[in-house]
Specification:
The protein is built from 17 helices and 13 strands. The protein has 400 residues and is of the alpha/beta class. The protein has 2 domains: 4-104 and 154-192 and 376-393, Glycogen Phosphorylase B (Rossmann fold); 202-374, Rossmann fold (3-Layer(aba) Sandwich), CATH 3.40.50.2000. Helix 11 (227-240) links the parallel strand 8 (213-218) and strand 9 (244-249). Helix 4 (80-92) packs across helix 5. The protein starts with a strand and ends in a 7-residue tail after the last helix.
Length: 400
Amino acid sequence: MKRFRLAYFSPLPPARSGIADYSTELLRGLARVADITLFVVDPDAVADDLRRQYSVAAIESYGARRFEFDLPLYHIGNNAAYHEEIYLTLLRYPGVLVLHECDLYQFMVHRSLGLHDHIHELARDLGLSQGMRGYHRAQSIAAGEYDLANLRWPLFDRAVRTSLGTIVHSEYARKRILHCVPEACVVHIPHIVDSHPRASDVRLDLGWPKDAIIFASLGHSARYKQLHLSMRAFAQLQAEFPEVRYLLVGESSDDSVELLRLVAELGLSDSVQHLDFVPDFQAFVDCIAACDIVVNLRDPTMGETSGSALRALSAGRPLIVFDHGWYSELPDEVAVKVDVMDEKGLLDAMRQLARGTARRLEMGEMAESYVRCAHQAESVSARYMEFLYEIVAAPESSPS
């Protein structure tokens, strides 16, 4: 069988994007069986190691070269700065869509009203999804009559309907898409996570007692991570377990100042440390290895599968999550699930894991096993290629 010729569209390192990190791991698996060209806005900005391994081209050149490839593969998420040109290319030259988040309203609103003054584009997308009601909602959004932070509209319709096939990382996402677009050709392929050994001991650098039990939250310090809830529960926990500490890892946002003010008000300044955006992927892995328990709360969920949560499991760290979306699909043996925004439930979960050393170790072993079985690069990339070949062989039929 001849090697597959794949045009690949995604944010790539050094972009500060979880999808960029995801692509780095996926590309290694796909490259075993495919010849890959990476299409990006600025080829010179791509990390040197990727430019040595793959052909890299400007995204605007794809139209003239599209017949060189069997298929294009498009990765789409909510960050308009990273995904707008990918999205526009997908609309012009349909291929296979990898939808990292179901709810794309942040992307759609930002690219329509933030990057451009294109209310007609937002009206078209909302109209496609919701009919005339959606069209009128677009006008209301433009007039400032909606709190964008509280919107819950998926807006994946146009991207999914345009694509030859769609890949998602959870059954939750697959069912949501099929509920809105029943004719969609959509498949669930697990998120990819490779194991990465620790390179340095961040725990020593924190200056905390050796017997400290360290909770951690990883990724952007944005409001939807519900870190305020975590801090309030943690303050109560520390009254019972003085040895607990909390590590916040991830790029600051506009919400960070308010969060750190709350940390001070709760008397936690000596027990909570915030590490801003870590310089590279290995440093992020080392931060995960420094903690004992990872708290990964997200509300609202955008239909995402959390790469940071899976990396924590890969490192043998138990999770505390909200019981909704993809997080509900995690085995109970690796994650303690609490009701959304239930502070008492969160405190109980933190208390269970703080006092239960044996349970933490058992959950950690199960976590590593779970990731090895379900999320490793070889099996995930093989499933990708199986789906791509199905699309090429029968582009108008659903995959078997």
